[in-house]
Description:
Number of strands: 9
CATH class of the largest domain: Alpha Beta
Radius of gyration: 19 Å
Helix content: 40-55%
Number of helices: 12
Bound molecules: phosphoric acid mono(formamide)ester, norvaline
Amino acid sequence: MSRHFLALHDYTKIELDGLLALAAELKNKQKSGVPHKLLDGKTVALIFEKASTRTRVSFEVGVFQLGGHALFMPSGSSQMGRGEPIKDSARVMARYCDGVMIRTFGQAIVDEFAKHSDIPVINGLTDLFHPCQIMADLQTVIEHKKSYTGLKFAWIGDGNNMANTWIEAAAIFGFELRLACPVGYEPDQAVMAWAQAKAPGLITLTADPKAAVIGADVINTDVWASMGQEAEQKEREKSFVGYCLDDALLALAQPDCIVLHCLPAHRGEEISDAVIEGKHSVVWDEAENRLHIQKAIMAYLIGGASGAQ
Ligand code: CP
Ligand code: NVA
């Protein structure tokens, strides 16, 4: 049976640390022109039921750099988009390909696909989780702060797929995470309960962005309306007043704090132009690291690379 990458909670801290180390190693190799064709002769299908820039490009380029072939499958161009059962699609894809990445809506869709797949399935974002992104974020934190250990993380904004995945990461890696979400926009309750049980006291939730940001080393935010929630944009703008990560809010954090945003960003909504373009912002390194961490995940799951001990 294949191992998948559907949610961080399926992995131990040691395994995820191993993937981060492998990502750093592959990044060095790529920068210094050392070949690392760990997917030589392999094909990875990339299924997209939502839009993407970073995920699509970083996976496609990553597979190419690893010596494999990426197959871009946007929604609407496959029979899955016309209602072919997920389990049938999963079994057929496994007869041709060596791995699959899926970006879709419900987590149940990737779980169902993976259940029937003889090849590794990677979650490229669902409504519930965005695990590749948080791994890229942690790689970025390690690069800028040497380690995530002992740092205070803050989440400002919607209790969405990013927030849920940060909650899992805090519980697994063991760092403090303070989330500020407006009332009615809290993270997933089951994810929160799982994390609180695994790491009691590490994760706190407030509706006051200032309280979350005070003394923080790493501050993270994301759009107020995620993909699929576009119709709620106006209503959400009213609920998220006071949640813009601007210079005034940032002044409460550590003077050497770093700012993360998975992108795409809505300047003037969840983050000010001055902050995203300012000296604390590491969002371009963060976007680049999607490439390196996903290469590590694919090399480990599909290419048989060690690294995740
Ligand atoms: N951060 C991220 O996943 O970006 P895309 O939606 O462009 O893939
Ligand atoms: N929360 C955002 C992340 C985009 C990368 C969304 O799901 O649309």
